[in-house]
Amino acid sequence: xxxxxxxxxxxxxxxxxxxxxxxERREAQEVLAALFAQTGRAQITGVTGAPGSGKSTLVAxxxxxxxxxxxxxxxxxxxxxxxxxxxxxxxDRVRMQALSGDPGVFIRSMASxxxxxxxxxxxxxxxxxxxxxxxxxxxxxTVGAGQSEIDVARAAQTTIVIEAPGLGDDIQAxxxxxxxxxxxxxxxxxxxxxxxxxxxxxxxxLELESAARSAGVxxxxxxPVLTTIAPTSAGVSEVLDTLAAHQAFLRSSGAGSGRxxxxxxxxxxxxxxxxxxxxxxxxxxxxxxxxWAGRIHRREIDLESxxxxxxxxxxxxxxx
Length: 320
Ligand SMILES: Nc1nc2c(ncn2[C@@H]2O[C@H](COP(=O)(O)OP(=O)(O)OP(=O)(O)O)[C@@H](O)[C@H]2O)c(=O)[nH]1
Ligand SMILES: [Mg+2]
Known about the structure:
The chain is an alpha/beta fold. 51% of the residues lie in helices and 13% in strands. Strand 5, helix 9 and strand 6 form a beta-alpha-beta unit.
């Protein structure tokens, strides 16, 4: 596992590294630590929504759009529901075939199999690895069905929640509790009956939720509701423009840094809990962790090294 090969764009080396990260192999973590200073450059977008709502089709259309704008794209399809990589991933392969001959696009499917540290932690590591490998855009596709998907989506800077037109007023995103993590809502399959009603229902739900949302989402960003017909790319360039606008908002408002430090603090805490929690009653001082998260955010240190330093400073022996 040679970081040089990964940085030089060797796709097979990258694929092997990702597999080793999924298997939580020590060498893979060491490569991530070595490349950690290279991360923080990619735009990481989460796409989440009910099964069959059109996520993969939209992601493929976004990828084509980014390629047309000269950007490279990595797609991470997380499928917690099918540990043996069932039909969905196969379907994705077919759908994304048109992209697969393009060296500027890298597609990776990921099941929850073997994710000892939890799917969210593994997803975050893989997204970071793709970021380190130099992709301009990293997209995480995940079925939106509750808390575990919310945790997965947290690896992203910008989250798109998608909703296909339904039969009536029933909004899947509300039922799944994922509306609150949306930076951007997309009604897919706008060529299907009921799309306008779905847009209206989402706008109404957003208004109702706006007070509750302010905890999780930065103030100053009004969540847009867009529509797409991804197979023909209708509406897709508006989604790309809105994603770019959200990234610009995250940068100019400082909300992006704030979110990342929070995210890193959560990850740090998770890793520390995994290592020592069951064995020791470790009182984690959240101010101290926030300081470490700040240092990681500034790329002064990587996550694993910070974990070691925190453990060393609390005089707790590390058990592997
Ligand atoms: N008419 C129409 N069909 C669409 C559109 N977008 C996607 N579809 C179809 O909807 C079906 C599901 O699309 P996917 O993109 O696989 O949905 P998904 O959310 O990725 O599905 P899972 O990953 O299995 O949860 C496919 O048959 C697509 O061709 C659209 O804009 N209009
Ligand atoms: Mg899919």
